[in-house]
Write a structure and sequence with these properties.
By secondary structure, the protein is α/β, with parallel strands linked by helices. It has one domain: Alpha-Beta Complex (Spore Coat Polysaccharide Biosynthesis Protein SpsA, Chain A), CATH 3.90.550.10. The longest helix is centred in the last third of the chain and has 17 residues. Bound molecules: cytidine-5'-monophosphate.
């Protein structure tokens, strides 16, 4: 028996911090939208996965012709990222089994590599909790005093940047998000909802160039990262024959 692999891509944000004329998933990098770049990476790693794409119900820019997956659906986004993910999980209730793996990946991270996706998938195959791509913090970390001055320096040892994808079994992730909603907890990533259940997601070391496009300067940087990866990562933009799509039990 095998558990299915689901991909949830929240893409319903407005990206206001970008200050652009359109949501960041529709900004272009070398003639392709951020959305298309991100889906291409996910498809290269997991061609057999089932995709839930969370989009603003009023989104008129979306072109379904650009979705490479055979099995996918559009899900209405919510007010916050966590609401968009919750809608996706609700949309597949009845189809997804509790032990199916769900990888949630922000549309704004088009630089995730196939190699990192494969490593995350392999690390989670037998993990009882689930986990996320992440990277150890390299800079010294400061906490501010709310008035633009340093209040304290935080020890960076043991601190990680949390990236996506973040992957958990369907049943666990639904329970975690429902519990955090009941507790009115602010959930900016999926792992923190799972942590609130008292569980410890696995940190899977990933490349530091898995940037999330957030600020205007990020777009050019991401363009350069993608161009550099195309030189060094043969699997990045090419169809990748990987047997991912079903987890063997
Ligand atoms: O705004 P931020 O970059 O933190 O958003 C992270 C991801 O969540 C993005 O991919 C964005 O499109 C998505 N999102 C969403 N629904 C919202 C807000 C954000 O799907 N209401």
């Amino acid at each position: 028996m095998s558990a299915a692999l689901w991909l949830v891509v929240p893409a319903a944000g407005q990206g206001r911090r970008m200050g652009a004329d359109r949501p960041k998933q529709y900004l272009e990098i070398a003639g392709r939208s951020v959305l298309a770049c991100t889906l291409a990476r996910l498809f290269a790693a997991f061609p057999g996965a089932r995709l839930c794409l969370c989009l603003d119900p009023d989104d008129t820019r979306f072109d379904p012709a650009g979705v490479p997956f055979a099995e996918w659906r559009r899900v209405p986004g919510g007010n916050e990222r966590v609401d968009s993910v919750t809608h996706a999980l609700e949309a597949i209730a009845g189809e997804a089994a509790d032990d199916d793996l769900v990888l949630v990946h922000d549309v704004a991270r088009p630089c995730v590599t196939v190699a990192d996706l494969a490593r995350l998938y392999a690390a989670l195959a037998d993990d009882p909790v689930g986990g996320l791509l992440a990277a150890p913090v390299a800079d010294t970390m400061k906490r501010d005093d709310g008035a633009g001055r340093v209040a304290t320096s935080e020890l960076r040892a043991g601190l990680w940047h949390a990236f996506t994808p973040q992957g958990f079994r369907y049943g666990l992730l639904r329970r975690a998000l429902a519990t955090s909603a009941t507790a009115d907890m602010a959930v900016t990533d999926d792992a923190s909802a799972v942590e609130a259940l008292g569980l410890s997601p696995r940190l899977v070391s990933g490349r530091r160039d898995n940037l999330k496009i957030t600020h205007p300067e990020d777009l050019a940087l991401v363009g350069q990262i993608l161009a550099a990866q195309a030189q060094t990562e043969p699997a990045s933009g090419e169809p990748y024959e990987a047997p991912f799509g079903a987890l063997e039990k």
